Amino acid sequence: MRIELLPPEVKSRISSGEVIEGPAEVVKELLENSLDAGATSIVLEVVKGGKRFISVADNGMGIHPQDMEKAILSGATSKLKSLEDLYRIRTYGYRGEALHAIASVSRLILRSRYFQEEHGFELVVEGGRVISSKPVGMQVGTQVEVYNLFYNVPLRRNFLSREDTERARIYKVFKALALANPHVAFRVVSEGKEAYRLKPAGSMKERVEELLEEKVEELSFEDGPIRISMFISLKQTRGELYLFINRRHVRNRNLTEYIKSLVGGKKLCVCSVEMPSYMVDVNMHPKKTEVKLHKENLVKELLRRAVGRRNYYSLPALKQEPARYVFEPELIGIIDDTLIVAKYGDYIYFFDQHLLSERYHYELGKEADTACRSSCKAGDRLTRVQAQELLQRWLHFENKEVCPHGRPSITGYTLESFIRSLEGATECWQGE
Ligand SMILES: Nc1ncnc2c1ncn2[C@@H]1O[C@H](COP(=O)(O)OP(=O)(O)OP(=O)(O)O)[C@@H](O)[C@H]1O
Ligand SMILES: [Mg+2]
Predict the structure, then answer these.
(1) How many CB atoms are located within 10 Å of the residue 45 CB?
(2) Whose CA is closest to atom 19 on ligand 1?
(3) Angle 426-430-432 (CA atoms, 0-180°, nearest 5)?
(4) pTM
(5) Where in the chain are all domains bearing CATH 3.30.230.10?
(6) Mutate to test the pocket of ligand 1, among 5, 35, 99, 113 (most ligand atoms within 8 A of CB)
(7) Which of 36, 125, 154, 335 lies 20 to 30 angstroms, CA to CA, from 144?
(8) Bridge partners for 408 per DSSP
(9) Do 91 and 36 form a contact (C-beta atoms < 8 A)?
(10) Measuring from each residue's beta carbon to the nearest atom of ligand 1, which residues come in under 6 Å?
């Protein structure tokens, strides 16, 4: 894969800015580059919390000898060519900024041997300027060494935190990437001592348990192209939550709050969502830590289904067998030609027949007001087949809960709430 400079019109549309604030960002960028290069084994070494020295060595595909100097230019990347590529991006990188940003504020050595070459090349760069370039003998792969971060930006250097704080940040970044890439072996050496050694894990569960030292239960749910895997500690230990979307460790307040509401705040929870790239906008923030999901409600729904009936709060768990779901909403009945009652997953839904059909017609492309007039009203007789058809369509609505005017058209109750209320009710019946 050869490196090219992004055309200006593409570069200007890519969110870039301050990418390097300290050693942890350097580590994140270098590890991501190694992973993008298909490395199966990565060694990270830091000295003085990364302030003095950071090195990342991998066995990935390497950089073509003619691309070595290009790699440190702004907007130079082998991962993206046009804006459309952003909709299918599967690599961590795409801005062509990281090496440039790091090289401008440090003394950097880039060594790399391309997989089709007999030997490697070494580039020495100071404050962004190439000092020397020569062939070296080495294995296929890449090694980047970063000395004295911000040596030429004293203001930044003075703003770095204490060594152990920076080290803790580095470990956090490393852990997230190691969790998201269980099949990759990692070794971390800090101040000359081995801090982590991870052999390739067979599964994410295995990696989670080894790295976070906690036994977890795995819950998963899949619907169409979206796959959810959750790993939740068996014990109430620490409230720690990792959210990955397509292997990217991301912040998304909405989703993390939702996950917490499902599993409680005292569990360790690693949650990984795999979905088509076009549903995820990663180009929101130069550091790519915020993403926008185009199907956020659907993802929430699937998360809830993954957790299923498990109750991480006070109630004793109902049934612990893995949840099996019928994906089709199941029509239970139509009440007074007004309400459609259906079971979907663990929920019982009550639909306003009129509003649902209005929404259906609206989706068919009509104007909201005509939709209103041409829809069946409460009181119109619907056949079961027609009702089932409406439910089928409802599944694919973007914003399922409302009619075209924004009025709520559905109420849902969990089956569990019914069961609970019935448990309370049995005594009365027995009393009669
Ligand atoms: N460890 C590596 N192995 C192989 N190639 C690498 C490695 N690190 C960097 N490169 C090459 O150098 C290019 C520039 O890297 P850089 O990190 O600056 O940009 P990027 O990864 O393309 O995008 P981003 O700025 O979003 O990280 C990459 O596109 C890649 O071709
Ligand atoms: Mg990169």
Answers:
(1) 19
(2) 96
(3) 125
(4) 0.75
(5) 204-307
(6) 99
(7) 154
(8) 402
(9) yes
(10) 3, 29, 33-34, 36-37, 58, 60-63, 71, 76-79, 93-100, 142
Q: Give residue 54 CA to ligand 2 midpoint distance, Å.
A: 16
Q: How far apart are the first and last CA of the chain?
A: 78
Q: Whose CA is nearest to atom 26 of ligand 1?
A: 93
Two structure tokens written together for 383: 């056949």
Q: Where in the chain is the domain with CATH 3.30.565.10?
A: 4-198
Q: How far is residue 291's CA from residue 293's CA, in Å, rounded to a whole number?
A: 6
The class of domain 204-307 in CATH terms is: alpha beta
- Reported as a single tens digit per residue, the pLDDT across 17-76 is 778 999 999 999 999 999 999 999 999 999 999 999 999 999 999 999 999 999 999 999
Report the nearest-CA residue for atom 1 of ligand 1: 34
Domain with CATH 3.30.1540.20 in the chain: 330-418
In this predicted model, what pLDDT tens digit does every residue of 172-212 receive, in sequence order? 999 999 999 999 999 999 999 999 999 999 999 999 999 99
* The CATH number of the domain covering residues in 330-418: 3.30.1540.20
Nearest residue (CA) to ligand 1, atom 12:
71
CATH architecture of 4-198: 2-Layer Sandwich (3.30)
Residue 410's pLDDT band (cuts 50, 70, 90) = confident
Nearest CA to ligand 1 atom 8: 33
